[in-house]
Amino acid sequence: MMDILFLLLSFFAILGAVGMVSFHQPVHSALSLILTIIALAGFFALLSASFLFMVQIIIYAGAILTLFIFIIMFLNVKEANLPKEPNKNMTLFLGAIALLPFNFLILQAFYKMPLLSAPLEKDFGKIKPLGMELFTQWLLPFELISILLLVALIGAVVFGRKEEA
Asked: Is pTM, for the whole model, over 0.90?
């Protein structure tokens, strides 16, 4: 059953990713990205990583992609204003062909990895060990990233503000 579910989620993740890069309308691409992100959340659920599953659904599929779709619809981009891409399919095909050696290299490295023989820890995928690790060992980088995001937010507000006449 797990194998069938894995194959089904893989199919939807690949389908969403292909749709994201091949659709011409930005809204359709964003909806395809939602499909991919929900399929990735399903992978986290299969791995018993409940926290990552919930973060993927609530933060990425819920908040961030809703913001993407809102901005796309707010901009109201007309079909005439979209760039003409006469060779888009050929470019995507050549890009996929160019990435094949890299994919084979990753697969080769994956198959050389040793298999996990020991069972997983009892609290694998739970929130408490993640929080303990984040706020003990990784407290300084966590706070530095929060300051960096705050500075980026302030910069976006400053640059986005209109000049008063």
From this structure: no
